[in-house]
Amino acid sequence: MNSFPGHITDINTNGAMSIVGVEMDGGEKLMSIVIDTPESAPYLKMGNKVNVLFKELEVAVSTQTELDISIENRIAGKITNMEMGVLLSRLTLETSLGVVIAIISSMSVGKMGLGKGMNVMIMVKLNEIILAP
Amino acid sequence: MISLNLKKKLKSAGGQMVLDLKLTIEKGQFVTLFGESGAGKTSTLRMLSGLLKPDSGLIEVGETTWFNSDENIDLKPQQRKVGYVFQDYALFPNMSVRQNLEYALHKGQDKAIIGELLQFAELNELEQRKPETLSGGQKQRVALARALVQRPEILILDEPLSALDLKMRIKLQEYLLQVHRKYKLTTILVSHDIGEIVKLSDKVFELHKGRVIKKGAAADFFGLNKTSAKFRFSGEVLKIQKEDVIYIVSVLIGNDIVRVVSDPIEAAQLKVGDQVLVASKAFNPIIQKL
Protein backbone atom coordinates (compact mmCIF):
# COMPACT_ATOMS: atom_id res chain seq x y z
CA MET A 1 0.00 0.00 0.00
CA ASN A 2 1.36 3.40 -0.96
CA SER A 3 0.85 5.77 1.97
CA PHE A 4 1.70 9.47 2.19
CA PRO A 5 0.87 12.23 4.67
CA GLY A 6 -0.97 15.44 3.86
CA HIS A 7 -3.64 17.80 5.15
CA ILE A 8 -7.19 18.49 4.02
CA THR A 9 -7.64 21.63 1.91
CA ASP A 10 -11.03 21.06 0.25
CA ILE A 11 -14.24 19.30 1.17
CA ASN A 12 -17.04 19.25 -1.38
CA THR A 13 -20.06 17.46 0.08
CA ASN A 14 -23.29 16.42 -1.61
CA GLY A 15 -25.70 14.18 0.28
CA ALA A 16 -23.72 11.39 1.98
CA MET A 17 -20.60 11.70 -0.18
CA SER A 18 -17.71 14.13 -0.30
CA ILE A 19 -14.80 14.77 -2.60
CA VAL A 20 -11.88 15.65 -0.37
CA GLY A 21 -8.80 17.54 -1.55
CA VAL A 22 -5.55 16.78 0.28
CA GLU A 23 -2.39 18.82 -0.04
CA MET A 24 0.53 16.45 0.33
CA ASP A 25 3.63 17.33 2.35
CA GLY A 26 5.53 17.58 -0.96
CA GLY A 27 3.06 20.20 -2.24
CA GLU A 28 1.10 18.02 -4.69
CA LYS A 29 -2.68 17.90 -4.42
CA LEU A 30 -4.62 14.63 -4.44
CA MET A 31 -8.36 14.03 -4.41
CA SER A 32 -10.45 11.25 -2.90
CA ILE A 33 -14.17 10.51 -2.95
CA VAL A 34 -15.54 9.09 0.31
CA ILE A 35 -18.96 7.98 1.59
CA ASP A 36 -18.70 10.37 4.51
CA THR A 37 -19.40 13.98 5.36
CA PRO A 38 -17.93 16.32 8.00
CA GLU A 39 -20.98 15.34 10.11
CA SER A 40 -20.52 11.55 9.78
CA ALA A 41 -16.72 11.60 10.05
CA PRO A 42 -15.32 14.28 12.36
CA TYR A 43 -11.82 13.92 10.88
CA LEU A 44 -13.08 15.61 7.68
CA LYS A 45 -12.03 19.09 8.72
CA MET A 46 -10.03 21.68 6.82
CA GLY A 47 -6.39 21.59 7.87
CA ASN A 48 -6.66 18.12 9.48
CA LYS A 49 -3.78 15.75 8.85
CA VAL A 50 -4.64 12.57 6.94
CA ASN A 51 -2.71 9.82 5.27
CA VAL A 52 -3.54 9.11 1.67
CA LEU A 53 -3.48 5.39 0.80
CA PHE A 54 -3.63 3.71 -2.59
CA LYS A 55 -2.81 0.24 -3.73
CA GLU A 56 0.17 -0.44 -5.98
CA LEU A 57 -2.07 -2.10 -8.56
CA GLU A 58 -4.29 0.99 -8.85
CA VAL A 59 -1.47 3.16 -10.15
CA ALA A 60 -1.56 3.80 -13.90
CA VAL A 61 1.57 4.92 -15.71
CA SER A 62 1.74 7.18 -18.77
CA THR A 63 4.65 8.50 -20.79
CA GLN A 64 2.59 11.51 -21.92
CA THR A 65 2.28 14.46 -19.57
CA GLU A 66 -0.99 15.90 -20.94
CA LEU A 67 -3.48 13.06 -21.40
CA ASP A 68 -7.16 13.75 -21.99
CA ILE A 69 -8.39 11.11 -19.58
CA SER A 70 -10.79 10.97 -16.61
CA ILE A 71 -8.17 10.24 -13.98
CA GLU A 72 -8.04 13.08 -11.46
CA ASN A 73 -4.80 12.43 -9.63
CA ARG A 74 -1.57 12.81 -11.63
CA ILE A 75 1.96 13.11 -10.37
CA ALA A 76 5.26 13.24 -12.23
CA GLY A 77 7.74 10.52 -11.37
CA LYS A 78 10.97 8.90 -12.45
CA ILE A 79 11.41 5.13 -12.68
CA THR A 80 14.29 4.22 -10.38
CA ASN A 81 13.86 0.47 -10.36
CA MET A 82 11.97 -2.21 -12.27
CA GLU A 83 11.30 -5.78 -11.32
CA MET A 84 10.00 -7.66 -14.34
CA GLY A 85 7.70 -10.62 -13.83
CA VAL A 86 6.04 -12.81 -16.44
CA LEU A 87 2.61 -11.20 -16.14
CA LEU A 88 3.19 -8.26 -13.82
CA SER A 89 6.03 -5.85 -13.21
CA ARG A 90 6.83 -3.79 -10.15
CA LEU A 91 8.03 -0.26 -10.76
CA THR A 92 9.69 1.89 -8.12
CA LEU A 93 9.14 5.58 -8.85
CA GLU A 94 10.63 8.68 -7.32
CA THR A 95 8.01 11.42 -7.01
CA SER A 96 7.43 14.60 -5.03
CA LEU A 97 5.31 12.44 -2.68
CA GLY A 98 8.20 10.09 -2.00
CA VAL A 99 8.74 6.61 -3.38
CA VAL A 100 5.63 5.26 -5.13
CA ILE A 101 5.31 1.60 -6.10
CA ALA A 102 3.30 0.81 -9.22
CA ILE A 103 2.46 -2.72 -10.31
CA ILE A 104 1.39 -2.89 -13.95
CA SER A 105 1.31 -5.58 -16.60
CA SER A 106 4.62 -6.62 -18.14
CA MET A 107 2.78 -6.33 -21.45
CA SER A 108 2.38 -2.58 -20.93
CA VAL A 109 5.99 -2.22 -19.80
CA GLY A 110 7.06 -3.79 -23.08
CA LYS A 111 4.58 -1.93 -25.28
CA MET A 112 5.44 1.44 -23.77
CA GLY A 113 9.14 0.71 -23.70
CA LEU A 114 9.40 1.63 -20.02
CA GLY A 115 12.84 1.51 -18.47
CA LYS A 116 14.93 2.65 -15.56
CA GLY A 117 15.59 6.42 -15.54
CA MET A 118 12.51 7.33 -17.61
CA ASN A 119 10.26 10.23 -16.61
CA VAL A 120 6.57 9.29 -16.52
CA MET A 121 3.24 10.43 -15.08
CA ILE A 122 1.53 8.23 -12.54
CA MET A 123 -2.25 8.42 -12.20
CA VAL A 124 -4.79 7.23 -9.65
CA LYS A 125 -8.59 7.62 -9.92
CA LEU A 126 -10.18 9.45 -7.02
CA ASN A 127 -12.32 6.43 -6.06
CA GLU A 128 -9.14 4.41 -5.45
CA ILE A 129 -7.77 6.72 -2.76
CA ILE A 130 -8.44 5.83 0.87
CA LEU A 131 -8.06 8.45 3.58
CA ALA A 132 -6.69 7.38 6.95
CA PRO A 133 -7.13 9.95 9.71
CA MET B 1 -21.02 0.81 37.61
CA ILE B 2 -18.63 -2.02 38.44
CA SER B 3 -15.34 -0.97 39.90
CA LEU B 4 -12.54 -3.49 40.38
CA ASN B 5 -9.20 -2.90 42.05
CA LEU B 6 -7.63 -6.27 42.63
CA LYS B 7 -4.30 -7.71 43.64
CA LYS B 8 -3.66 -11.43 43.56
CA LYS B 9 -0.62 -13.65 43.29
CA LEU B 10 -1.33 -16.28 40.66
CA LYS B 11 0.51 -19.35 39.54
CA SER B 12 0.58 -19.45 35.78
CA ALA B 13 2.23 -21.74 33.27
CA GLY B 14 5.23 -19.38 33.12
CA GLY B 15 5.68 -19.29 36.90
CA GLN B 16 4.28 -16.74 39.34
CA MET B 17 2.41 -13.66 38.25
CA VAL B 18 1.02 -10.79 40.26
CA LEU B 19 -2.36 -9.70 38.99
CA ASP B 20 -2.74 -5.97 39.63
CA LEU B 21 -5.88 -4.82 37.96
CA LYS B 22 -7.93 -1.64 37.89
CA LEU B 23 -11.07 -1.79 35.80
CA THR B 24 -14.29 0.21 35.59
CA ILE B 25 -17.32 -1.02 33.68
CA GLU B 26 -20.42 1.11 33.16
CA LYS B 27 -23.78 -0.43 34.04
CA GLY B 28 -25.52 -1.91 31.01
CA GLN B 29 -22.36 -2.17 28.91
CA PHE B 30 -21.23 -5.24 27.01
CA VAL B 31 -17.47 -5.45 27.48
CA THR B 32 -14.81 -7.94 26.44
CA LEU B 33 -11.65 -8.98 28.20
CA PHE B 34 -9.10 -9.77 25.54
CA GLY B 35 -5.58 -11.13 25.82
CA GLU B 36 -3.43 -14.21 25.55
CA SER B 37 -3.92 -17.30 27.72
CA GLY B 38 -2.63 -16.76 31.24
CA ALA B 39 -3.13 -12.97 31.13
CA GLY B 40 -5.52 -13.15 34.10
CA LYS B 41 -8.90 -12.87 32.36
CA THR B 42 -10.57 -15.89 33.93
CA SER B 43 -9.00 -15.17 37.35
CA THR B 44 -10.47 -11.66 37.23
CA LEU B 45 -13.93 -13.03 36.46
CA ARG B 46 -13.62 -15.67 39.19
CA MET B 47 -12.75 -12.94 41.70
CA LEU B 48 -15.71 -10.83 40.57
CA SER B 49 -18.08 -13.77 40.99
CA GLY B 50 -16.61 -14.76 44.37
CA LEU B 51 -15.07 -18.08 43.28
CA LEU B 52 -11.52 -16.81 43.94
CA LYS B 53 -10.49 -14.54 46.78
CA PRO B 54 -8.21 -11.58 45.94
CA ASP B 55 -5.16 -11.03 48.20
CA SER B 56 -6.29 -7.44 48.58
CA GLY B 57 -8.42 -4.83 46.91
CA LEU B 58 -11.94 -3.67 46.32
CA ILE B 59 -14.96 -4.76 44.28
CA GLU B 60 -17.87 -2.35 44.14
CA VAL B 61 -21.01 -2.95 42.13
CA GLY B 62 -23.34 0.05 42.05
CA GLU B 63 -23.76 1.19 45.65
CA THR B 64 -22.77 -2.18 47.11
CA THR B 65 -19.34 -3.33 48.22
CA TRP B 66 -18.82 -6.99 47.28
CA PHE B 67 -15.24 -7.19 48.47
CA ASN B 68 -13.07 -4.93 50.58
CA SER B 69 -9.95 -6.43 52.11
CA ASP B 70 -9.46 -3.46 54.49
CA GLU B 71 -12.94 -3.80 55.94
CA ASN B 72 -13.12 -7.59 55.74
CA ILE B 73 -16.10 -7.54 53.40
CA ASP B 74 -16.36 -10.61 51.16
CA LEU B 75 -19.82 -11.49 49.86
CA LYS B 76 -20.43 -15.17 49.15
CA PRO B 77 -20.86 -16.17 45.48
CA GLN B 78 -24.61 -16.72 46.02
CA GLN B 79 -24.95 -13.18 47.43
CA ARG B 80 -23.41 -11.68 44.30
CA LYS B 81 -25.80 -11.17 41.42
CA VAL B 82 -23.63 -12.84 38.81
CA GLY B 83 -24.55 -15.38 36.14
CA TYR B 84 -21.60 -17.40 34.86
CA VAL B 85 -21.46 -19.28 31.55
CA PHE B 86 -18.49 -21.53 30.84
CA GLN B 87 -17.13 -22.84 27.55
CA ASP B 88 -17.84 -26.44 28.56
CA TYR B 89 -21.48 -25.72 29.57
CA ALA B 90 -21.07 -27.38 33.03
CA LEU B 91 -24.60 -28.84 32.97
CA PHE B 92 -25.64 -31.61 35.36
CA PRO B 93 -25.76 -34.73 33.13
CA ASN B 94 -28.27 -36.62 35.29
CA MET B 95 -30.85 -33.82 35.22
CA SER B 96 -33.25 -32.76 32.49
CA VAL B 97 -33.05 -29.31 30.94
CA ARG B 98 -35.83 -28.07 33.24
CA GLN B 99 -34.20 -29.62 36.33
CA ASN B 100 -30.89 -28.00 35.46
CA LEU B 101 -32.63 -24.63 35.50
CA GLU B 102 -34.67 -25.37 38.64
CA TYR B 103 -31.54 -26.38 40.52
CA ALA B 104 -30.32 -22.80 40.13
CA LEU B 105 -33.38 -21.30 41.86
CA HIS B 106 -32.58 -19.83 45.23
CA LYS B 107 -34.71 -20.76 48.21
CA GLY B 108 -38.29 -19.58 47.94
CA GLN B 109 -37.81 -18.07 44.46
CA ASP B 110 -40.88 -17.97 42.22
CA LYS B 111 -40.67 -20.79 39.66
CA ALA B 112 -42.32 -18.66 36.95
CA ILE B 113 -38.88 -17.53 35.76
CA ILE B 114 -38.11 -21.08 34.57
CA GLY B 115 -40.98 -21.11 32.09
CA GLU B 116 -40.10 -17.64 30.88
CA LEU B 117 -36.46 -18.55 30.28
CA LEU B 118 -37.31 -21.87 28.59
CA GLN B 119 -39.59 -20.01 26.24
CA PHE B 120 -37.15 -17.19 25.52
CA ALA B 121 -34.36 -19.69 24.81
CA GLU B 122 -36.76 -21.76 22.64
CA LEU B 123 -36.13 -24.77 24.86
CA ASN B 124 -39.76 -25.65 25.63
CA GLU B 125 -39.78 -28.75 23.48
CA LEU B 126 -36.47 -29.90 24.95
CA GLU B 127 -37.23 -29.33 28.62
CA GLN B 128 -37.45 -33.05 29.53
CA ARG B 129 -34.30 -34.01 27.61
CA LYS B 130 -30.98 -34.83 29.27
CA PRO B 131 -27.97 -32.70 28.24
CA GLU B 132 -26.22 -35.58 26.45
CA THR B 133 -29.01 -35.71 23.88
CA LEU B 134 -28.60 -32.01 22.97
CA SER B 135 -26.41 -30.34 20.37
CA GLY B 136 -23.59 -27.99 21.45
CA GLY B 137 -25.65 -24.92 20.63
CA GLN B 138 -28.66 -26.25 22.57
CA LYS B 139 -26.49 -27.07 25.59
CA GLN B 140 -25.07 -23.57 25.57
CA ARG B 141 -28.59 -22.09 25.44
CA VAL B 142 -29.45 -24.19 28.50
CA ALA B 143 -26.30 -23.02 30.30
CA LEU B 144 -27.15 -19.43 29.45
CA ALA B 145 -30.77 -19.80 30.60
CA ARG B 146 -29.54 -21.38 33.84
CA ALA B 147 -27.18 -18.44 34.44
CA LEU B 148 -30.19 -16.11 34.22
CA VAL B 149 -32.44 -17.98 36.69
CA GLN B 150 -31.39 -15.89 39.68
CA ARG B 151 -31.92 -12.69 37.68
CA PRO B 152 -28.30 -11.58 37.78
CA GLU B 153 -27.21 -8.01 37.11
CA ILE B 154 -23.91 -9.17 35.70
CA LEU B 155 -23.51 -11.92 33.12
CA ILE B 156 -20.08 -13.47 32.70
CA LEU B 157 -19.39 -15.34 29.47
CA ASP B 158 -16.04 -17.14 29.53
CA GLU B 159 -15.37 -18.17 25.92
CA PRO B 160 -18.97 -19.35 25.67
CA LEU B 161 -19.02 -20.04 21.94
CA SER B 162 -15.52 -21.29 21.19
CA ALA B 163 -16.54 -24.97 21.12
CA LEU B 164 -19.27 -24.36 18.52
CA ASP B 165 -19.16 -24.37 14.75
CA LEU B 166 -19.32 -21.06 12.93
CA LYS B 167 -23.00 -21.20 11.95
CA MET B 168 -24.06 -21.91 15.52
CA ARG B 169 -21.68 -19.24 16.83
CA ILE B 170 -23.24 -16.57 14.67
CA LYS B 171 -26.75 -17.60 15.73
CA LEU B 172 -25.82 -17.59 19.41
CA GLN B 173 -24.03 -14.23 19.10
CA GLU B 174 -27.38 -12.73 18.09
CA TYR B 175 -28.99 -14.53 21.00
CA LEU B 176 -26.39 -13.19 23.47
CA LEU B 177 -27.14 -9.65 22.32
CA GLN B 178 -30.88 -10.24 22.77
CA VAL B 179 -30.34 -11.61 26.27
CA HIS B 180 -28.05 -8.70 27.17
CA ARG B 181 -30.70 -6.16 26.11
CA LYS B 182 -33.84 -7.93 27.35
CA TYR B 183 -32.51 -8.53 30.86
CA LYS B 184 -30.68 -5.16 31.02
CA LEU B 185 -27.47 -6.91 31.97
CA THR B 186 -23.93 -5.75 32.33
CA THR B 187 -22.16 -8.44 30.34
CA ILE B 188 -18.49 -9.38 30.48
CA LEU B 189 -17.20 -11.63 27.71
CA VAL B 190 -13.89 -13.42 27.29
CA SER B 191 -13.22 -14.11 23.62
CA HIS B 192 -10.36 -14.32 21.13
CA ASP B 193 -12.53 -13.95 18.03
CA ILE B 194 -12.16 -10.36 16.80
CA GLY B 195 -15.28 -10.54 14.60
CA GLU B 196 -17.28 -11.74 17.59
CA ILE B 197 -15.83 -9.08 19.90
CA VAL B 198 -16.56 -6.24 17.48
CA LYS B 199 -20.08 -7.52 16.86
CA LEU B 200 -20.98 -7.91 20.53
CA SER B 201 -19.08 -5.49 22.68
CA ASP B 202 -19.16 -1.79 23.41
CA LYS B 203 -15.73 -1.75 24.95
CA VAL B 204 -12.61 -3.94 25.02
CA PHE B 205 -9.98 -4.25 27.74
CA GLU B 206 -6.73 -5.98 26.85
CA LEU B 207 -5.02 -7.81 29.69
CA HIS B 208 -1.38 -8.75 29.70
CA LYS B 209 0.41 -10.37 32.66
CA GLY B 210 -2.36 -9.39 35.04
CA ARG B 211 -2.68 -5.75 34.02
CA VAL B 212 -4.91 -3.75 31.70
CA ILE B 213 -2.59 -2.55 28.95
CA LYS B 214 -5.10 -1.15 26.47
CA LYS B 215 -8.79 -0.26 26.32
CA GLY B 216 -11.14 1.31 23.82
CA ALA B 217 -14.36 1.07 21.83
CA ALA B 218 -14.39 -2.28 20.03
CA ALA B 219 -14.02 -1.08 16.41
CA ASP B 220 -11.37 1.50 17.37
CA PHE B 221 -9.51 -1.02 19.51
CA PHE B 222 -8.80 -3.28 16.54
CA GLY B 223 -8.09 -0.39 14.18
CA LEU B 224 -11.16 -1.04 12.05
CA ASN B 225 -12.05 2.66 12.05
CA LYS B 226 -8.61 3.76 10.97
CA THR B 227 -9.48 4.34 7.31
CA SER B 228 -12.31 5.83 5.28
CA ALA B 229 -12.69 2.44 3.52
CA LYS B 230 -16.25 1.15 3.91
CA PHE B 231 -15.81 -2.38 2.52
CA ARG B 232 -13.90 -3.86 5.41
CA PHE B 233 -13.67 -7.11 7.31
CA SER B 234 -11.43 -8.72 9.86
CA GLY B 235 -10.07 -12.17 9.28
CA GLU B 236 -7.23 -14.59 9.73
CA VAL B 237 -4.35 -15.20 7.33
CA LEU B 238 -4.45 -18.79 6.04
CA LYS B 239 -1.85 -18.74 3.29
CA ILE B 240 0.70 -16.40 1.74
CA GLN B 241 1.99 -17.34 -1.69
CA LYS B 242 4.36 -15.58 -4.05
CA GLU B 243 3.06 -15.11 -7.59
CA ASP B 244 5.22 -13.24 -10.07
CA VAL B 245 6.20 -9.89 -8.48
CA ILE B 246 3.34 -9.92 -5.97
CA TYR B 247 1.99 -12.06 -3.15
CA ILE B 248 -1.50 -13.53 -2.85
CA VAL B 249 -2.76 -13.68 0.72
CA SER B 250 -5.68 -16.01 1.53
CA VAL B 251 -7.77 -14.71 4.42
CA LEU B 252 -10.56 -16.50 6.28
CA ILE B 253 -13.45 -14.08 6.85
CA GLY B 254 -16.43 -15.72 8.53
CA ASN B 255 -16.63 -19.01 6.66
CA ASP B 256 -15.43 -17.58 3.37
CA ILE B 257 -11.88 -17.53 2.13
CA VAL B 258 -11.03 -14.36 0.24
CA ARG B 259 -7.81 -13.60 -1.58
CA VAL B 260 -6.02 -10.30 -1.43
CA VAL B 261 -3.09 -9.22 -3.57
CA SER B 262 -0.26 -7.77 -1.56
CA ASP B 263 3.00 -5.99 -2.32
CA PRO B 264 6.13 -7.90 -1.19
CA ILE B 265 6.92 -5.25 1.45
CA GLU B 266 3.50 -5.76 3.07
CA ALA B 267 3.50 -9.53 2.67
CA ALA B 268 6.83 -9.69 4.53
CA GLN B 269 5.06 -8.31 7.62
CA LEU B 270 2.36 -10.99 7.56
CA LYS B 271 2.40 -14.57 8.73
CA VAL B 272 -0.12 -17.40 8.73
CA GLY B 273 -2.47 -17.07 11.69
CA ASP B 274 -2.26 -13.25 11.89
CA GLN B 275 -5.50 -11.36 12.46
CA VAL B 276 -5.82 -8.79 9.70
CA LEU B 277 -8.06 -6.02 8.43
CA VAL B 278 -9.10 -6.38 4.80
CA ALA B 279 -10.44 -3.14 3.33
CA SER B 280 -11.38 -1.59 0.05
CA LYS B 281 -13.37 1.43 -1.03
CA ALA B 282 -17.13 0.93 -1.31
CA PHE B 283 -16.77 2.04 -4.94
CA ASN B 284 -14.88 -1.06 -6.07
CA PRO B 285 -16.88 -4.25 -5.33
CA ILE B 286 -19.55 -5.33 -7.76
CA ILE B 287 -22.90 -6.50 -6.42
CA GLN B 288 -25.30 -8.93 -8.06
CA LYS B 289 -28.54 -10.56 -7.00
CA LEU B 290 -28.16 -14.32 -6.54
Description:
The complex is a heterodimer of chains A (133) and B (290). In chain A, a hairpin with a 2-residue loop joins strand 7 and strand 8. Chain A is mainly beta and 133 residues long. The model of chain A has no long low-confidence stretch (mean pLDDT 94). Chain A has one helix at residues 106-112, and strands at residues 2-14, 17-24, 29-34, 49-54, 60-62, 73-84, 88-95, 98-105, 119-124, 130-132. Chain A is built from one helix and ten strands. Chain A is elongated. In chain A, the strands form two sheets. Chain A has a five-stranded antiparallel β-sheet, with no helix packed on it. A five-stranded antiparallel β-sheet of chain A has the order 5-9-6-7-8. Chain B has helices at 41-49, 97-103, 112-120, 136-148, 166-182, 194-200, 218-221, 264-267; strands at 2-12, 15-25, 30-34, 56-61, 64-68, 73-74, 82-85, 154-158, 186-190, 203-208, 211-217, 231-243, 246-253, 256-262, 275-280. Chain B is α/β, with parallel strands linked by helices and 290 residues long. In chain B, helix 2 packs parallel to helix 4 (136-148). The model of chain B has no long low-confidence stretch (mean pLDDT 90). Chain B folds into two domains: 2-221, 3-Layer(aba) Sandwich (Rossmann fold); 231-280, RNA polymerase II/Efflux pump adaptor protein, barrel-sandwich hybrid domain (OB fold (Dihydrolipoamide Acetyltransferase, E2P), Beta Barrel). Chain B is globular. Chain B has eight helices and 15 strands. In chain B, 34% of the residues are buried. In chain B, the strands form three sheets. In chain B, strands 7-8-9-3-10-11 form a six-stranded mixed β-sheet, with helices on both faces. A five-stranded antiparallel β-sheet of chain B has the order 2-1-4-5-6, covered by helices on one side. Chain A binds chain B through residues 1, 32-36, 41, 53, 55-57, 83-90, 101, 103, 127-133, and chain B through 226-230, 244-246, 261, 263-266, 279, 281-284.
